[in-house]
Structure formats: C-alpha cells, structure tokens
Amino acid sequence: xxxxxxxxxxxxxxxxxxxxxxxxxxxxxxxxxxxxxxxxxxxxxxxxxxxxxxxxxxxxxxxxxxxxxxxxxxxxxxxxxxxxxxxxxxxxxxxxxxxxxxxxxxxxxxxxxxxxxxxxx
Length: 121
Fold this sequence. Notes:
The chain is mainly beta and 121 residues long.
C-alpha cells in the first residue's frame, strides 16, 4: 500500500492595494513635481474615535519592512504593519467643491467615525 501526498495548487494572493486611474494620475504629477525623487508611504496609525487612520508620508524609498506596490505604472510603499488592514484596498483621488485628496475604499473596514477621519476593522 502506497500513500501519495498531493499538494493542492496555491491560489493567487489578493493584490495588497490598487490605485484608481485618478490616484495614479495625481501621484504621477506629484512625483514629477514637488515630490520628485520621493515615494508615497501608506501606513495605518492608531488615531481618531474609531481607532485607526490612514497615514500618508513622503519617503526617499522603501524601508526594510515596507511592501512595494506598483499599479498602473506608479509605485507606493506600504508599512508592513498595515498590510493586514489594507489587503484589497483601492486608493482614489477625489476632487470636491471645497476639497481634494486621496481616499480609500477598504473592504476590511467595518465602520467609520462620523467625521470620516478614522475607521475600524
């Protein structure tokens, strides 16, 4: 009697993060302008009434624990501690009547605070 151990094929991991066309276009403009030579770093910090908030900063390059994400030809880095909170997230850039900025559509969010500054998973 022989025993055969079959390995199941691994399914593809979901993309850590994606960029909308508007976010990619805005980042290209920022990278070509005042932030030339820098990379946007995305992290999640403990903050706000719901517990967590997105934290964006400019860095010279990825740190030792950062994940590099390239989508639509644009690269951002993600703090490794934030990856579990951001899997499947899409970053967008929205222009409204009185404001403009990056927004996040995160399938892991279970709720947001009333002011929209923080979220919880």
